Every structure is written in structure tokens, then in C-alpha cells.
């Protein structure tokens, strides 16, 4: 049983198929990079994996003790968050909510976990800073710490480098790689920055209304599709 | 000044007004922070107009005002939030529709029977004389409910306010908590509109939290500060209103405006200082 598997999954909006016949599975420690052009169905698949949208057919299964609400999610930033008055600590701690169950408040273990995750990502010194006053890179680290609070084994990053400069992007990629290799956390990343993202991934899923490619990175680089898309990506 | 305050509290109707006012200000400020940040600032306005229509209809049909207005407002709050999510009419348009539509229905209902009189005027602009003993009891019960629910769900309300998608993806029932926020808002608006008036109640929701956000950097301090601002402005407003015979609702709003401007200036000055 793999950590996450999609079995012949299709999604549709108002009866129209936007994504069909998705078949793949990933295991503990994999680093999957999801690529495809705008409108290829990446966001739709993410919503499906996170249980925010039901597939019109097929099944998405999580295994090995990971529940669907235990996927750490790093969403694209919303406008609301940019001027939100909250301390870094408050934001990170909110990631522990899914382990509270019916308990109304956070306990000591929740608070300690939030501090540990902040320490791990090197943002402990920002603990009492206001979220809206941080740089883009720091904000992403905060949201990543929150995502780690919500999960033990799998994180899903949706366009994590949008709005970051090249140096901050590199730092974020390195950080995610470290989490993947040292902590053995499974990573699913969606990115526009194909060249940068692919270098770190172990597996590639290429979408275009349907599944165009799924497999190891090396195989993708050698495939016709991969060669075409990667060189195209560089020139654009 | 002390004498005036003692004089104020020698009138039973003033005591009632102060009790209800403080409680409503407190609830409005608690909920306001979440509503403003979620971009639902206009919901208070929409609900108060619906409340006005409900009160007018209740007045015409001789029903108890609050027993009509509270359920109607709760229903309207649910509708407004639902519309925001998935419908062809978007949230702000829906609020605008509801505002003017409800106002028209209310005025029609009144004009068909008695014409515009003081009672209706009171609902529009508020009156501290409107508080009866049963209003006080209902206010106390409802505000206790609001406070308990808010405190009990505080971590969840924060999560849903900050990032609804993340909350939903990690298994928080964000729809449920949105409903709770809507329900509490509706109850607060109905209670507050009789004192503040239909036209001014949304200021109670919006002003204190916006003022607090100027100077506070944590969610919890924003909420506590906005509650303090709200209660303080209410007291200042009602004092001025008593001494200079100005309309209560408007006096409270003016107090809020002054605080807002002051805090904005403090924020600006702070930014200057950090830039130097």
C-alpha cells in the first residue's frame, strides 16, 4: 500500500471533464513534482487530494496510516493574509488544530510542537513578529512550519515560489529538499518554475487535461515530452 | 463630571441602556475582527436593514419585535454567507440587494398602516429609550452565549479567518464555523440596532477592530484591544449624548471615528520612526 494513490481519477466542473484518467501512486520519501501548463488541471488535482473537491469518478486513497486531513498543505497566499494582524507563533500553532479533535484549546504538546517546527525552519527568532511585516520568503517559511505542524509525513506545496526572488526561491527549494531527505517527509510540489523544481524531484507528474507522464525524473528527461517541455520552458 | 455620572445612573432607563450597550459593544467588537478580516464588513449593514424590515413588519402585525427580528436576521446571515461561496450573485452585490430590498419592504409595511412615526424613526437612528426590561434580559443571555461560543471556538475561528482553505484541507469544518460566526453576528446586530439604529450598527462591528488593527500585531491583542475600544467609545458616546442631548448612536460613532484617526496617526508615526 502506498502513501497516496490515484486510481483512474477524473474531475469535472458542471459536467465537463477538466481532468481525466489520473493513475499514479507515491511512497514514503518520494518527492513528486507536478507540472503542466495553465489550465492543465493541477489545481483541480490538488483540491482532490486535499478532499476539497470530489472526483467525478475513480478513487483517491491515502495509506500507511496517513489520513486525508493529515496532509500538510502550503497554499498559495491569499490577499487577506497580506495584511493579517497575527503573530508568527499564532499562525504556526493553528496548524496543530487537526490534532486537537474536540478539545477546544491547544495543550502543551501542541505548543511545544509549534516551537520545534519553527526552530527546524530557522524562524524561531521571528516568534513574536507580526506576520504581515515579514518578507515574502519568511512568510513562506511560516506557512511551511504550519504545514509541518499539520502532518507527520506528507506535505503538498502549491506554487511555493510565487512572488519570491531567485535567492529566496533557492533557499526554499533547499529547505524542502532537506525536509525530504533528512526527515523522510513525502513532498508533492506544484510549480511553474519547471527547471528549478525538477532538479530536486524524484518523480514527475506531467498533466495536460489528462496524465501525460508519470515516472522517475531521469525517465522524464529522456522522454520526448520531457525534452520538448523542458527546453520550451527554458526559452519561455 | 462625577456628579453627571451619578445622575445618569439614577434613571432606570439609562441603567438599562448602559447594560445593553456595553454588552452589545463587547459582542460586536469580538465578532468584528473576524468579519473585517474575512472581508465581510458589510454584513452588519445588510443584516441591520433586514432587521429593520422585520421590526417594521412585527410592529404592523403587532408581534413581539425581537421574536420576529432574530430568526429573520439569522436566516438572512446564513443566506448571505451561502451566496458568498457559490452563486451567480456575489457577496457584495447580494449584500447591496438585501440592504435596499429590506429597507423598501420595511418602509412599505409601515407606510401602509400608520405612516412614519417616532417608533420607526427610532429604529432607523436608534434610541436609548427603546430598551425595556425584557430587552435587558435577552441582551444578557445572548451576549453570554456569544462570549462563551467565541472563547470556546477561538482557535478554530482564528484558523478559519486566517486561511479557510488550509483549515478545510486539514479537516476543520470551516462551513460550520462560518455559520457560527454568522449566527452570532445576526444576534448581535438585532440587539444593537435598537440602540444604535439601523444606519449606524455596522459601525460598532467595523470601527473598533479597524482601530485596533492599526496598532496591534497579534490576533489576540487585536481582539482584546477592540473590545476595550468599543466599550470605552460607547461610554464616552452615551456620556456626551446625555450631557449635550445629542443622538446616542451618532455620538458613539463619532467617538469611534476619533479613536480611529488617533490610532492611524500613531501607526503613521511609528512607521516614520522605524524608517529613520
Explained architecture:
The complex is a heterodimer of chains A (236) and B (276). In chain A, 36% of the residues lie in helices and 24% in strands. Chain A is of the alpha/beta class and 236 residues long. Chain A has two domains: 1-66 and 154-164 and 186-236, P-loop containing nucleotide triphosphate hydrolases (Rossmann fold), CATH 3.40.50; 77-152, no CATH class. Chain A has a six-stranded mixed sheet with strand order 5-6-7-3-8-9, with helices on both faces. Chain A has a three-stranded antiparallel sheet with strand order 2-1-4, with helices on one face. In chain A, α4 (108-120) crosses α5 (136-149). The longest helix of chain A has 17 residues, at 166-182. Chain A is globular, with a radius of gyration of 18 Å. Chain B has 276 residues and is mostly helical. In chain B, α3 (43-60) packs antiparallel against α11. In chain B, 50% of the residues are buried. Chain B has 13 helices and no strands. Helix content of chain B is 83%, strand content 0%. Chain B has a single domain (2-275), classed as ABC transporter involved in vitamin B12 uptake, BtuC (Orthogonal Bundle). Chain B has helices spanning 2-8, 12-37, 43-60, 65-85, 91-113, 118-125, 133-152, 154-162, 164-169, 174-196, 201-215, 219-244, 248-275. Chain A binds chain B through residues 50-52, 67-73, 75, 78, 80-81, 84-87, 90-91, 93-95, 97-98, 100, 104-106, 128-130, 133, 146-147, 150, and chain B through 37-39, 152-156, 158-159, 162-163, 165-172, 213, 216-220, 222.
